[in-house]
Amino acid sequence: MEIYLDIVILENIVINYLILLVTSRFSKNRTSSLRLFLGSVAGTAYLVLMILLPEVKVYTTLVSKFLLSIGMVAITFSFNRFSVFLKTLALFYATTFIFAGAGFALIFFNKDWGIIRNGVLISPLNFFDAKWTELLLAVAVALIIFRVIWDAVQSRFVKEKLLVDISIAVENKSIGLPALVDTGNSLHDPLTNLPVVVVEFSAIKDLLPDDIKSIFEQNHENDLNSVTAKISSSDWFKRFRLIPFTSLGRENGMMIGFRPDYIEIGADDGKKDIRDVIVGIYNRTLSANEQYRALMNPELI
Q: Are 151 and 12 contained in the same domain?
C-alpha cells in the first residue's frame, strides 16, 4: 500500500486540532486558533518522526508519549494554576481516547484496515476518496459520545442550584456578592459568544460610571435610543454589549452588559479567575431574601 506523507500530515493536523478544540471547549480554558494550530502541528511532527525513523525506539516509549501530550497542552493553553493544567491534561486524554475509539470502531467495520508502522496505524486515505466521509463520521461520533458523557458527569456532580461567592473587578474597584449557579442561564454575548453572568444593578452600581448608572436609575434600560446615545459617548464604550434574552419573565428583551477586567469565583485556595466573561445588568431583584444577587452561567464552574 502506498503512503502519501502529505495526506498523513494533513489528516493528523486536522484531528489534533479538533481534539485540542474539544479540550478547550470542555475545560473552559480558552485559547487562540494559532495556538491550537501550533499544538496540533507539534503532535503531527512527532507522529511523522515515528513513521520515518522506526529504528529510533525512543519515540515509541511511554515516557516520550507522555511528554508529547504535556508539550501539546502546554503549547496550546495558558495556566495560572497547576490544578488547571492537570484538569486540562486529563480532559485532553479523555478526548483523545474517545476520538481514537470512534476511529477504530469505524476501521473495524471497514474491510480495508491499513497498516501499522512503528506502532502507528495508517489507514489508506485518498483526498478525493469517500474515506474522508468516514473520517468526518468518526469525528462526529466522538463529539456525540463526549457530549453525552460530559452531560452525565455534570448532572451527577453539579447540583441544579449551587451558591458560590464571586467578585467582579473593573479597573481599580471590585465588588463581592453571592451568585446562584443556574443551569437555566445559558446566555451568551452574540458578538463574542462569551458566557454571561446576570447581576442585579443595585449590587454593582458602584462599579459603573455615572452616565451608565443613570440609565438604570431612571429606568431607561429598555429605551434603546437613550441607551445607545449614552453608551456611545461613555468612557466605557468598548466594554459594553447589548445582549438579547428571552428569560427573566420577558421575551425579546435586550440586556445591557459589560466586560469586566475579570471575575473571581470561589474563595481562598479554590479561587478561579475568569477574564472571558460578560456581566449582564438586571434592574430588578433576583432573590427576595437576597440569598443571591447574580445568576451564574454553569459553563463558568
A: yes
Q: Against a cut of 0.70, is the pTM above it?
A: no
Tens digits of residue pLDDT in 54-70: 666 665 677 888 888 89
Domain boundary among 157, 178, 200: 157
What are the tens digits of pLDDT across the range 146-155? Answer: 677 666 655 5
Residues 83 and 197 grouped into a single domain = no
Q: What is the mean pLDDT of residues 12-38?
A: 86
For every residue of the chain, DSSP letters joined together read ----HHHHHHHHHHHHHHHHHHHHHHHT----HHHHHHHHHHHHHHHHHHHH-TT-GGGGSHHHHHHHHHHHHHHH---SSHHHHHHHHHHHHHHHHHHHHHHHHHHHTSS---EEETTEEE----TTSTHHHHHHHHHHHHHHHHHHHHHHHHHHHS-SEEEEEEEEEETTEEEEEEEEEETT---B-TTT--BEEEEEHHHHGGGS-HHHHHHHHTT-TT-HHHHHHHHHTSTTTTTEEEEEE--TT-SSEEEEEE--SEEEESSGGG-EEE-S-EEEEESS-S-TT-S-SEEE-GGG-
Q: CA–CA separation, 97 vs 251, rounded Å?
A: 42
Residue where a domain terminates, one of 141, 157, 173: 157
Structural domain harbouring 23: 5-157
Counting residues of the chain whose pLDDT is more than 70, the rounded percentage is 71
